[in-house]
Amino acid sequence: METIIHRLDVNRINKEVINEASEILKKGGLVAFPTETVYGLGADALNEKASSDIYRAKGRPSDNPLIVHISNKEQLYKLVKEIPHNAELLMDNFWPGPLTMIFKKSEIVPDGTTGGLDTVAVRMPNHPVALNLIDSSGIVIAAPSANTSGRPSPTSSAHVEEDLCGKIDMILDGGDVGIGIESTIVDMTSDIPVILRPGYITKEMLEDVLGNVDIDKAVMNPLSENVRPKAPGMKYRHYAPKAELIIFNGKMNDVIRRINEETDECISKGKCVGIIASEETKDKYKAGMVLDIGTRQDEDMIAHNLYGVLREFDAANVDVIYGETFKESGFGQAIMNRLLKAAGYHVEDV
Ligand code: TXA
Ligand code: MG
Fold first, then answer.
1. Which of 113, 169, 199, 348 has the most crowded CB, counting CB atoms within 10 A?
2. What are the pLDDT digits (tens) for 184-224?
3. Which helix (H) or strand (E) holds 194?
4. Which residues does the chain have with pLDDT short of 50?
5. Angle formed by the axes of helices 15-26 and 128-137, to 10°?
6. Residues 197/32, Cβ–Cβ less than 8 Å
7. Predicted TM-score of the model (pTM)
8. Proximal ligand: closest to the CA of 234
């Protein structure tokens, strides 16, 4: 299959291109598009065959449900059985934006979109290309991140091309995304809402609106063998580079010394080493491929660069990656959640 790639100026969106993409979606095809978090791989959420094609293109396990993207609240009423008052409050505060909510699904949402669950994940993205595409197609768009399953999510159109060129109908290139890690997912079906995946909208921000909010255990801890996490996607080794990733935790000077030692040892065995460093520490690493993920003072920058850095190590074919830890409060929780998952929870205390 030939993949058509269109570049779009997000300040002056070319309607003809959006119409062409809409026609593809209406016929059951696949279109990758930018959102404010990561690129999504879109298809008609109410067309079971179209959503099954998403799984095929990504190589995604079919029990891992998709997020349905909408551009106005009316679309939500058709997708869900009920909208709890708490969800109305979150919508008013955070939509359009990087927040996904889980609801009990209505009959029109096919099992193929929800991985057989009786709930559906819905989000109104805050990106002009995404909103235009949903509006002009009149379609609610099922869209997982537009990467091959298991690889780091795409934060640029080049990342989407790397993974999906030849497997999907179209890529809408709207430049680099803003946030760089996926939306916060909150389960609204229990009395106290539960965060299933942390993101830019933090627990503190949700609690400012709702009072009490819980966090699912699977967020920061490895799952034991037979536990099924509430967000099925959290059970896979996720967001992961090809090389083994090991995170070192401790006082910064000790971490740097240890990473330098491990790096020397690996290099002496003929291996290639990647190091995830921060602006503050990058000059302290003496060998290996050192990538600066940004300053520790700016979590937005770290999140924005994380997946791109992991993909750069992939492209360089490093054998092993060593990383520092970052603080776990606020937006940092989402950053550490992705890093820990990418590392398969391989953390060494120094
Ligand atoms: O920022 C994002 O959310 C991006 C952009 C494209 O919108 N999308 C995204 O989708 O990250 P995906 O498929 O890569 O991740 C969706 C996650 C998975 O972990 C999945 O298991 C979970 O959401 N999920 C989807 N529907 C669910 C449901 N009904 N109940 C629990 N978890 C659900
Ligand atoms: Mg994903």
1. 113
2. 999 999 999 999 999 999 999 999 999 999 999 888 888 77
3. strand 194-197
4. none
5. 60
6. no
7. 0.96
8. 1
